[in-house]
């Protein structure tokens, strides 16, 4: 007896629809996982970049703060500034005020407030730091009144370079007009801004020569549209026997800079008062340390799911975490913020 044969069958419509639904659910789950992982990667990458920028900014700024007022010789050495117009140009005014701060509402002689690239952002602080730096050279010979000096080796200077010459008794700041081998010349003409006169002090073989490195920091309008603000640093540029300060964009994604100054008014090498903003400092020679507060914001948008709240000094009121206040980003702001803090001493003013 033969069994009845069955006609071949495929998937029913219901089975196909169920399979399609399961496939769609799997694709949706995979897509959601991909989007979540991508968002996590973007947020992590933005945070890593902010932290890297913060480390670099604090390292560079604290290094310059440590060296402020350094001449290569004892700080008790009397100063003679031979540069033309030395009291009216910020980078030439090397004296008791080797550090000068400017509050967010106070004009800074290096850069005006504005909206063009490089202009200072209103509400952010600025600071001038003046010091010597780089290689040091020993004086081999110099006669009082002479506009030439021989060093122990050929220096890394050129016509227009500004230098400091010092010994235990006197420090002189001047501009070179010529460099030939190990001999440097500093005539009263032939450079800009130039020298107002000649050296009257006789520097012997115990004297040192070192380059002059004035710097200033401020937050300015960024050159890149991706990051609206950057940290700028002024440095001295020498070209054609002329020395001029040049602002360079140092680090992007810097949203704010607030500075507070530690004061030692009684000379005991300790901060006497709470850290003050620039408007509270009456004598810049009494500043022995600076508290840096930098606020970074990612150039990348939409890396957070909601606006951030961060602890950061509110201008003119001291540290925000001392008073318990917070800064809150706008409700529509989805950028990542990262505050960074450091306190740096001015080593030349401490034992």
Mean pLDDT: 86
Sheet with most strands: 8 strands, mixed
Which bin fits the share of residues in helices? 10-25%
- If strands are numbered along the chain, what order do they take across the biggest sheet? 1-7-6-10-4-5-9-8
Weakly predicted, low-confidence segments: 316-324
Assembly context of the chains? single chain
> Strand content of the residues, in percent?
25-35%
Q: Note the total helix count.
A: 2
- Reading the helices and strands in chain order gives HEEEEEEEEEEEEEEEEHEE
Form type: elongated
| Total domain units | 2
What integer value in Å does the Rg equal? 30 Å
Structural class by sheet pairing and helices = alpha+beta
Number of strands: 18
Span between N and C termini? 116 Å
Keywords: Membrane, Transmembrane, Transmembrane helix
Protein name: Prepilin-type N-terminal cleavage/methylation domain-containing protein
Organism: Thiorhodococcus mannitoliphagus
List keywords for this structure.
351 residues; alpha+beta; 2 domains; 2 helices; 32% strand; transmembrane; PilW; membrane; Prepilin-type N-terminal cleavage/methylation domain-containing protein
What do these coordinates show?
By secondary structure, this protein is α+β, with helices and mostly antiparallel strands. The chain folds into two domains: 46-67 and 99-129 and 214-349, no CATH class; 134-212, Elongation Factor Tu (Ef-tu), domain 3, CATH 2.40.30. It is 17% helix and 32% strand. The protein has two helices and 18 strands. It has helices spanning 13-67, 320-323; strands at residues 78-81, 99-102, 126-129, 132-141, 148-151, 162-166, 170-175, 178-180, 183-185, 208-212, 215-221, 229-239, 242-252, 254-263, 287-297, 309-310, 327-328, 337-345. The strands form four sheets. The chain has an eight-stranded mixed beta sheet with strand order 1-7-6-10-4-5-9-8, with no helix packed on it. A five-stranded antiparallel beta sheet has the order 2-3-11-12-13, covered by helices on one side. The protein has a three-stranded antiparallel beta sheet with strand order 14-15-18, covered by helices on one side. The longest helix is centred in the N-terminal third of the chain and has 55 residues, at 13-67. The protein is elongated and about 120 Å long. It starts with 12 loop residues before the first helix and ends in a 6-residue tail after the last strand.
């Amino acid at each position: 007896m033969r069994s009845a044969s069955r006609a071949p069958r495929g998937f029913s419509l219901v089975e196909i629809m169920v399979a399609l639904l399961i496939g769609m659910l799997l694709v949706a789950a995979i897509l959601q996982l991909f989007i979540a992982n991508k968002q996590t990667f973007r947020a992590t990458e933005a945070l890593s970049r902010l932290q890297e920028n913060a480390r670099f900014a604090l390292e560079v700024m604290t290094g310059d703060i440590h060296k402020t007022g350094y001449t290569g010789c004892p700080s008790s050495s009397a100063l003679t500034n031979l540069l033309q117009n030395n009291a009216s140009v910020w980078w030439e005014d090397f004296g008791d005020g080797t550090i000068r701060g400017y509050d967010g509402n106070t004009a800074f002689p290096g850069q005006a407030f504005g909206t063009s690239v490089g202009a200072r952002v209103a509400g952010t602080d600025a600071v001038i730091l003046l010091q010597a730096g780089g290689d040091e050279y020993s004086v081999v010979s110099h006669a009082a009144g002479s506009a030439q000096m021989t060093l122990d080796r050929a220096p890394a200077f050129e016509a227009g370079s500004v230098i400091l010459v010092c010994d235990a008794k006197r420090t002189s700041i001047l501009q070179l007009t010529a460099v030939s081998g190990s001999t440097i010349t500093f005539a009263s003409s032939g450079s800009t801004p130039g020298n107002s006169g000649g050296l009257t002090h006789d520097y012997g073989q115990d004297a040192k020569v070192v380059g002059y490195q004035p710097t200033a920091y401020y937050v300015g309008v960024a050159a890149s549209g991706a990051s609206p603000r950057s940290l700028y640093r002024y440095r001295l540029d020498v070209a054609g026997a002329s020395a001029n300060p040049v602002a360079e964009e140092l680090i992007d994604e810097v949203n704010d800079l607030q500075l507070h100054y530690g004061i030692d008014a009684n000379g005991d090498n300790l901060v006497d008062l709470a850290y003050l903003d620039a408007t509270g400092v009456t004598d810049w020679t009494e500043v022995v340390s600076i508290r840096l507060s930098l606020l970074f914001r990612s150039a990348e948008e939409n890396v957070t799911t909601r606006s951030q709240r961060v602890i950061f000094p509110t201008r003119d009121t001291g540290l925000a975490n001392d008073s318990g206040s917070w800064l809150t980003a706008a409700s529509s702001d989805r950028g990542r913020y990262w505050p960074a803090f450091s306190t740096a001493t001015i080593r030349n003013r401490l034992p």
